[in-house]
What we know:
Order of helices and strands: EHEHHHEHEHEEHEH
Bound molecules: zinc ion
CATH superfamily of the largest domain: P-loop containing nucleotide triphosphate hydrolases
Distance between the termini: 5 Å
Helix content: 40-55%
Strand order of the largest sheet: 2-3-1-4-7
Low-confidence stretches: none
Number of domains: 2
Number of helices: 8
Structural class: alpha/beta
CATH topology of the largest domain: Rossmann fold
Radius of gyration: 17 Å
CATH architecture of the largest domain: 3-Layer(aba) Sandwich
Strand content: 5-15%
CATH class of the largest domain: Alpha Beta
Amino acid sequence: MKNVVFVAPPAAGKGTQSDILVEKYGYNHISTGDLLRAEVASGSELGKDLAEKMQKGMLISDEIVNSLLEKALMDERPFILDGYPRTEKQITYLEEILSRVNREIGVVIYLNVPENIACSRATGRLVCPKCNSVFHKTENKPKVEGICDNCGEALISRSDDTEETFKVRYNTYVENAKPILKYYESNGLLKVIDKINIDEVTSEIEKVIK
Ligand SMILES: [Zn+2]
């Protein structure tokens, strides 16, 4: 399986597709947010320092993120990189890290979901605060209204998912992603997926990762 860099605006279904690839093909899903949270949870010195910075809303340095990323990329399973690179500088960091661990990107996948569809998904989204499962008020209803199928916890809607704030988040993301996409298009790694339906997106992804 090819190593994947996943780029997608919020609510494009990146999490769902990542879960499918992990389950079906044994991918190692690497998200820099998860790496930071795992380091905090480990209780290490670095974790304590990170917890303090995150609490104060301070930016985490590239150096720290990169070192956690490098460690995660030493795992031999094929990887899905999620949420990185986000800047042109990080494109360069990633190339340096990959060459150190002797690996390469097989494909960069962009899930091109239009703003109105992403918005309706996001604003109807229900999240389980305990196990992080995601449901939707109309598209992917939990079996019992308001209750997580997996662990029975009461579901919440994320407070930042109002229509207005979502649109800002979406457009900011798309704007910032432009140079990243342009770069990976220029070196032939970019694959844009325009499908919306979850199964169709999965089958498009399967065509490019094998
Ligand atoms: Zn749950």
